[in-house]
């Protein structure tokens, strides 16, 4: 049951218990016996009764409609519908406002510097052997000279060959189960494959781990089946000194590790005239050696694939 206090004006807005649409009802017509009137929208018979606390509103029963006076026609008792927004519109408005705010923030965060973006795209294209001679979007920035390569030129044969070699080596790494221990990069120097030190050797040791057999076999097959391919095996360590009878310094350790890898690959069929090994100790770190989390990354074996 809903209760409304009588307003001071001549009409009172009373909601229909059926459709909740409010109708203006004359206050002086609402008595203790009650006033029955029809809802102007759904035509439900509504009983409005004056109480000590205000006005009580509910649906009128059939008996009450028979016993009491029915509401007068609409022209005699105006029951104006008070129009208002449905209840769900408030939640919808809040959602729309939040979405608008979200997209405004996304747009502000995604605001890019067009000039820097064009320079970046130009650098990427130049790195892959494609530059533009004419002015336009995504051209490489050349200081002191202009790009003289036609924009429609295809990739050079050398670049295409390196890309194919990267795919072949990647497949070999996957077959050997060394995906988490290997990284492959392609530069003008050639294709470089980096293997984490622990994947091939135990710390401070130069004996190959059994898990390295499949990987070295796959790599040896690539060298055998690819013509004019020269491979340099490089050994690298971190800056922690080692002083043993077998390894007076990191130079001996890195060189012997590279030699061990080379010897194993020669036994697996790699051509000796296209293989070489070198040790660089801690002279070519990938990361600073002053942090414990980056120092192990400098202990590695690298394979540099070059065209002869």
Automatic annotation (TrEMBL):
Subcellular location: Cell membrane
GO CC, alphabetical: plasma membrane
Gene3D superfamilies tied to this protein: OmpA-like domain (3.30.1330.60)
UniProt keyword terms in alphabetical order: Cell membrane, Cell projection, Cilium, Flagellum, Membrane, Transmembrane, Transmembrane helix
A matching Pfam family: MotB_plug
Membrane topology: Single-pass membrane protein
TM spans (from-to): 87-110
Assigned protein family: Belongs to the MotB family.
Designated name of the protein: Flagellar motor rotation protein MotB
Source organism: hydrothermal vent metagenome
